[in-house]
Design goal:
Bound molecules: histidyl-adenosine monophosphate
Mean pLDDT: 95
Number of strands: 16
Number of helices: 16
Radius of gyration: 28 Å
Shape: elongated
Structural class: alpha+beta
Distance between the termini: 45 Å
Strand order of the largest sheet: 1-5-6-11-10-9-7-8
């Protein structure tokens, strides 16, 4: 047997209703906030991600699916979508049409991570980006959108953690202070954190190692190194969040796995998820456009939600989604009546009534059993007598009542009953 690749997941028919529900909710709430969808390629030139996500990040160093294609170009399956959005905005000059863009996207992403509950190598994200505003109301708007989606999905318990990484100047100053503090403790740090200390010191703050935690909890706080501009942005954002009733918890050690962030960063956590507890995250990226050889910075902010993790949360909350059963089963007692069966089934479908019939020429008894199993509301039965008299027999599957009626009237009856 050939099985699927480790870290990928088949979404089977019985799981689809929850996905449809999530996808419909994402579309509806995005439109409510005036966001427009953008669909981007599954793969990009490797440099799109290398440049933006950061050479020192885990994603670029260890997790990208990168290959050389037959034309000799280095290609990467997208590990995230913000970089692709920025690439597309610049390529199509979208900001010349409108100086502020509200965009959303949805689709599969690829990261070569160690698979575990809620962590896959192919997973799905919904994301939204506001491109072109540096003001705190854009931060609030993006969090209002995220919150509205989460609530509309029915996720009842979660925590929004926020922090500010400030502007580049503040971040560099903090980085220096943090490195000198961590160096004093480098012997006590885990191997992974020691490695990060050399390459990407802020990420040490993300360590889950219990020994590291003690060192982290005594480390200098980034807030104390933010310059006036950065502090003002952070404080105004927090004030507005409170005004709009968005609950959050400040977490001064929140750093994100991607390097392009500045100022506000945030994560949504759920206790239903175990160790991979973040079902969404995002932040500002005021300095990202210049990484793509754009002359001016375009201040922007966005977030993404992990759909598989949302499915896990909804399932642990015991919310059940069921696919609607077909409404009508057309049964026959002789295969020579199949043309009539097809004609009737097709007529009902034209009126929007979902209809199925047997494709294996089984006995009438087996067909009726199947109709019952499929949970249809009505079964039409076509036999010799019905064909001769241009009628159909209709069985109500709820109460078992059955009657015979002229074909056209029978179809009208079903349309009235089932529409
Ligand atoms: P991220 O935090 O890397 O951010 O991913 C966002 C969410 O995607 C995570 O919170 C998680 O729910 C889900 N996720 C990430 N990796 C996996 C995985 N291996 N398996 C399952 N789910 C996963 C970003 O990707 C940024 N582009 C978000 C953003 C948009 N920032 C600004 N704009």
């Amino acid at each position: 047997m050939i099985s699927s690749v480790r870290g990928t997941k088949d979404i089977l028919p019985e799981e689809m209703p929850i996905w449809y529900f999530i996808e419909k909710t994402l579309q509806e709430v995005s439109s409510l906030f005036g966001f427009k969808e953008i669909r981007l390629p599954i793969f990009e030139k490797t440099e799109v991600f290398q440049r933006s996500i950061g050479e020192a990040t885990d994603v670029v160093r260890k997790e990208m699916y990168t290959f050389v294609d037959r034309g000799g170009d280095s290609i990467t399956l997208r590990p995230e979508l913000t970089a692709s959005v920025v690439r597309a905005v610049i390529q199509h000059n979208l900001l010349s049409e409108s100086p502020l863009l509200r965009l959303w996207y949805y689709g599969p992403l690829f990261r070569y991570e160690r698979p575990q509950k809620g962590r896959l190598r192919q997973f799905h994200q919904y994301g939204a980006e506001i491109i072109g505003s540096s003001h705190p109301e854009a931060d609030v708007e993006i969090l209002l959108l995220a919150n509205s989606i989460i609530k509309k999905l029915g996720i009842s318990e979660y925590t929004l953690l926020i922090n500010s990484l400030g502007n580049l100047k503040s971040r560099l100053k903090y980085r220096e202070i943090l490195v000198s503090y961590l160096k004093q403790h480098s012997n006590e740090l885990s191997v992974e954190s020691r490695e990060r200390l050399g390459k990407n010191p802020l990420r040490v703050l993300d360590s889950k190692d219990p020994n590291d935690l003690e060192i982290i909890q005594n480390s200098p706080l980034i807030y104390d190194f933010l310059d006036e501009e950065s502090k003002e942005h952070y404080n105004n954002t927090k004030m507005m969040l409170k005004e709009y009733g968005i609950s959050f918890k400040e977490y001064p050690y929140l750093v994100r796995g991607l390097d392009y962030y500045s100022h506000t960063v945030f994560e949504f956590q759920s206790s239903f998820l175990g160790s991979q507890d973040a079902f969404g995250g995002g932040g500002r990226y005021n300095e990202l456009f210049t990484q793509f050889s754009q002359k001016n910075d375009i201040p922007s902010i966005g977030f993404a939600l992990g759909i598989e993790r949302i499915v896990l949360i909804l399932e642990s909350q015991g919310i059940e989604f069921k696919q609607e059963n077909p409404k009508v089963f057309v049964a026959y007692n002789d295969s020579k009546f199949i043309p009539k069966v097809l004609e009737i089934a097709q007529k009902l479908r034209e009126f929007g009534i979902s209809t199925i019939f047997d494709l294996q020429r089984r006995s009438l008894k087996a067909q009726l059993k199947d109709a019952n199993k499929k949970g249809v509301s009505y079964t039409i039965i076509i036999g010799e007598e019905e064909i001769n008299n241009q009628t159909i027999s209709i069985k109500n599957m709820q109460d078992g009542n059955q009657f015979t009626i002229e074909i056209r009237k029978g179809i009208e009856f079903l349309i009235n009953e089932l529409k």
